[in-house]
Amino acid sequence: MQVYRSLPSYQANNLKAWIGKIAVNKSIDWKRRHAARSENELLSDQEAPFQSPGGRDDPEASLIRGEKRNQVKKAIAALPENYRRVLQDYYFKEMSYQDIAAQEGLGVRAIESRLYRARHLFRQKWGESDYEAF
C-alpha cells in the first residue's frame, strides 16, 4: 500500500531498490511501534502492585502519573511549532515519515531531521525540569 501511496515521489532510477527502501522503512516503523507497546505493557505490569484489589489505582500512583503527563505536555508545548507537529504526528498519531512528509509538503529527509531535532529539544526541556528523565 505504501508503494502505491509513494508513487508520485518515485524517480525512475532503480525500482527494486526503491521498493526495498520502503519495505525497510515500514519494518523499522513497525518494530519501533511494537517496542513502544511492549514498553507500555511492561510499565503497566510494574504499576499493577499500585492497584487495589477492586482495580482502582492507588491515589499516589495516579497523581504521579498525572504529574508526569503534565510535565511531558509542558515540554512538548515549549517546542517550536514545526518540531511539535512532527513529534506529535510521529509518536502520538503513529504516522510514518512518509505520511508526515506528505502532510507537511517536505521530503522524508527533512522530516527525519526535524524529528531528530525535536527529540533533542524535548530532552533539553525535560532535563530543565526537576523531574528525572525517562
Helicity range: over 70%
- Hey, roughly how much beta strand do the residues contain? under 5%
Q: Can you count the helices? A: 6
Quaternary assembly: single chain
Task: Write a brief structural summary.
The protein is 73% helix and 0% strand. The chain contains six helices and no strands.
What key phrases describe this protein's structure?
0% strand; 6 helices; mainly alpha; 134 residues; single chain; disordered C terminus
Question: How would you characterize the overall build of this protein?
Answer:
The chain is mostly helical and 134 residues long. The protein has six helices and no strands. The chain has helices at 2-6, 15-47, 59-77, 81-92, 97-104, 108-128. Helix 4 (81-92) crosses helix 6 and helix 5 (97-104) packs across helix 6. The longest helix has 33 residues, at 15-47. The protein starts with a helix and ends in a 6-residue tail after the last helix. Residues 45-54 and 130-134 have low confidence and may be disordered.
